[in-house]
Amino acid sequence: MHEVYLDYNGSTPLDPRVAEAMIPTLRFGIGNASSAHRFGQRQAASVEHAREQVAALVDASSSEVIFCSGATEANNLALIGLAEGAPVERNRIVISAIEHASVREPAQWLHEQGKAKVDMVGVTPGGSVDLEELDSLLSSDVLAVSIMAANSETGVLNPISDIAKLTQEVGAVFHCDATQMVGRLPLSLRDTPIDLLSMSSHKICGPEGIGALIGTRHSLARLRPTIHGGSHERGLRSGSLNVVGIVGLGTASLLVSEERDSESARVKKLRGQLVDGLRTELAGVHENGDPSKRLPNTASVRFKGADAEAVVFNMDPVAVSTGSACSSGSIEPSRVLLAMGLSRDEAFESVRFSLGRFTTEAEIKTAIRQTVKAVQHVRAMTESGS
Ligand code: PMP
After folding, report:
1. What whole-number distance in Å separates Cα of residue 60 and Cα of residue 188?
2. Which of 26, 57, 134, 232 is most exposed, with the fewest beta carbons within 10 Å of its own?
């Protein structure tokens, strides 16, 4: 049986066209992009071309793009950078209960260091941020609100235009981790006034280890660097630029700009076939999260009475993921699903399928077959008590 990769929210395969675009720089690019000589200038020109491609993807201007190593670093720079540059009267940060660890943990660190007070806003049973609760947490001492555009486990979308409005009404900065949404649905900074946006190349079929923090001039001016020593990227991210990675991210962004809409429709149809197929073949199949407000590629599916870790193990060579994580030596259920009100048992029964650019109908058929077999096997083992 062929391997089937349905973990695009974890990381996407590199598009061969992106690889092609990176090869000339990888093989022939010589010199540091900040050097004044002709070699360095050629590297710098490649970087600036890519910067324009990345900016175009979200309708930003190229001067608003700060390249860094990925969304983890972009999120750290946004939160820690804002807190370090904050006026004393603004010392609160609001995040949601379903943020990625790269937002949650820097926020927690700032809190522990006494650099900011952190509040957490909950989510509705459908999985999106509770706007009323957010509103009740906002006041003139809030420095920043950091809320993701789309959740990586459920695919549920947050009402980011409303969140931006509420945040900016109290003069705070809206940081949005848009890592999962960029590339899957249109996101324009002209229509949605996000102040700081994090994105990552390896979620849009580009290479790993490169991403960007994109922000308005005014918001970038409020940041302090977290990495010092070379004043690259407007002084916000020192270090010689990863020119090959940046060229890859640029091409990946261009491909998304050109192909996203047709691609999303195709993937959404495949997801529908997957979930319908599972529902037809199995009883006790529930989808987590509001199905009307979701990324087109993601399905978080609960198989009643079947432990997800065991299901995923038995689905090999079909690759999917569970939301649970290993913490201090024990397996912990997904925080996201618990925040939505699922019980620990329900969270432990949930499997995430995430599709993407290279997913085919044949692969979906294989995935249905393997999942059904795995769930039936795990349920039978559970019933027999073995
Ligand atoms: N935020 C979200 C929502 C993510 O899904 C991920 C990757 N799993 C990250 C941040 C971290 O991205 P990177 O791997 O580029 O550091």
Report:
1. 8
2. 26
Cα 207 to ligand 1 centroid, rounded to whole Å: 13
Does residue 96 register a pLDDT over 70? Answer: yes
> In this predicted structure, what is the pLDDT of residue 370?
98
CB 249 within 8 A of CB 211: yes
Tokens describing residue 82: 């804002």
Three-state secondary-structure class, residue 65: strand
DSSP state of 373: H
> Which residues touch 121 (CB under 8 Å, ≥6 apart)?
94, 95, 96, 97, 129, 130, 133, 134, 137, 147
H/E stretch holding 321: strand 321-322
Q: Strand 142-146 to strand 92-96: parallel, antiparallel, or no bridges (unpaired)?
A: parallel
- Pair 82, 220: CB distance under 8 Å: no
Q: Are 14 and 21 in contact (CB under 8 A)?
A: no
Ligand 1 centre to CA of 179 (Å) is: 6
Note whether 144 and 94 are within 8 A (CB): yes
CB-neighbour burial class of residue 305 (10 A; exposed 0-12, middle 13-18, buried 19+): middle
Q: Which atom of ligand 1 is nearest to the CA of 200?
A: 15
DSSP, collapsed to helix, strand or coil, labels residue 174 as strand
205 assigned to active site = no
Residues with Cβ within 6 A of ligand 1?
70-72, 100, 102, 148, 152, 177, 179-180, 200, 211
Contact 209, 14 (CB under 8 A): no
Interval 292-307: pLDDT, tens: 999 999 999 999 999 9
